[in-house]
Write a structure and sequence with these properties.
This protein is an alpha+beta fold. It folds into two domains: 193 residues, Ribosomal Protein S5, domain 2, CATH 3.30.230; 147 residues, Alpha-Beta Plaits. 45% of the residues are buried. The protein binds (3R)-3-hydroxy-3-methyl-5-(phosphonooxy)pentanoic acid.
Length: 357
């Protein structure tokens, strides 16, 4: 599918209301470095989550004139003008692919299932939920739109809002960015993994330890930018491609030792890129390192397949099979929760993708 296939020109403004719930996702192979219009420098693979979701409703009405405000935005029922520039930038970008939205007034209202200021980035689930509402509007004007094009274009639009949002439409695993092993992969949208994924991964657990609830000191946009001219960038992009290939086999054969190797190496490589860019920065906190060391000790002592990954922040995602959840949850409660802000952690697991409500 090429960009030109995503252009939809509607003839008249309509009244419509759409509500979609989109999940967050956690990358196993990380996307870090972009070019052009949110195109990734390397492919990434993620687990789609299930409980960390954004729910968005958009009410579409005809826009009376250009002076009529294009959109309004409520977050958790409160007017949030500080989000306006990001939403406007997104709507401007996507209006090339659905010019008809210029003639609609959109009342957008969003809420997250995860707590306020938990330090969990919501841009992936938020942009995915908004993109799906816009696709719902397109489907109303173009009822013959196929389900598959609906989802593909939703991922394409979400990517223009926030790169990793492209991976928040479908589940349980998606790949975004061209990689030779995944024949249908592309830089312009994410696709679900088509090979038969091993049963162990279907209900994989992700417990998110809230090590730091604060907002990030360095935005991901700046972090991506710092990969331009980064001394290790080219090798990093090659490594991510190799790790996608490795993971494609692991996800089918269920080899958890190999899974842990790839996933933890990816997490620490992401943070190594941050620590070696110019300017350099560190998003991990002392408690992030304490938790990592405790996970390694626990794994050595129990042989249980518990591993970690990190986002662009200090919080730690603990990944493990559901069969080992009872023992691991005791370990989290007794040993790890003391390193979380206010003892806070979120229990999530792999999910099947976004839902229309
Ligand atoms: O989608 P962005 O621009 O917020 O970048 C996300 C980057 C990471 O979360 C660090 C990695 C990833 O692949 O999700």
């Amino acid at each position: 599918m090429e960009e030109k296939n995503f252009i939809f020109k509607s003839s008249s403004a309509i009244n419509h209301r759409a509500t979609w719930q989109a999940p967050s996702n956690i990358a196993l192979v990380k996307y870090w470095g972009k070019h052009g219009d949110q195109l990734p420098k390397n492919p990434s693979i993620s687990f789609t989550l299930s409980k960390c979701v954004t729910t968005t409703t958009v009410e579409f009405t005809p826009r009376l004139s250009e002076n009529d405000p294009w959109f309004s935005f409520l977050f958790e029922n409160k007017e949030q003008v500080n989000f306006h520039p990001k939403i406007k930038q997104f709507l401007d970008r996507i209006s090339i692919y659905m010019p008809g939205i210029k003639f609609q007034r959109m009342s957008i209202s969003s809420s997250n299932s995860f707590p306020h200021s938990s330090g969990i980035a919501s841009s992936a689930s938020a942009m995915a939920a908004l993109a799906l509402c816009l696709m719902d509007w397109e489907k109303k004007s173009n009822p013959v739109l196929s389900d598959s094009l609906f989802k593909t274009k939703a991922s394409f639009l979400a990517r223009l809002g926030s790169g990793s949002a492209a991976r928040s439409i479908e589940g349980p695993l998606t790949i975004w960015g061209e990689n030779a092993t995944f024949k249908n992969s592309t830089d312009i949208y994410a696709v679900p993994l088509t090979s038969k994924v091993h049963d162990v991964f279907y209900n994989f657990q992700d417990t998110i330890l809230i090590v730091d609830r604060g907002t990030k000191k360095v935005s991901s946009s700046l972090g991506h930018q710092l990969m331009n001219g980064h001394p290790f960038a080219e090798n990093r992009f090659l490594q991510a491609n190799d790790n996608c290939e490795l993971l494609s086999k692991i996800l089918v054969n269920g080899d958890l030792d190999a899974f842990i190797e790839v996933v933890e190496s990816e997490a620490l490589t992401l943070h190594s890129m941050m620590m070696t860019s110019s300017p350099r920065f560190i998003l991990m906190q002392p408690n992030t390192l304490t938790v990592i060391n405790k996970i390694w000790d626990f794994r050595a002592a129990t042989q249980l397949p518990l591993c970690f990954t990190l986002d662009a922040g200090a919080n730690v995602h603990l990944l493990y099979p559901e069969t080992h959840a009872p023992a691991i949850k005791i370990f989290i409660q007794e040993e790890l929760s003391q390193h979380c802000e206010a003892g806070q952690f979120i229990e999530d697991q792999v999910g099947q993708g976004a839902k229309k409500l």
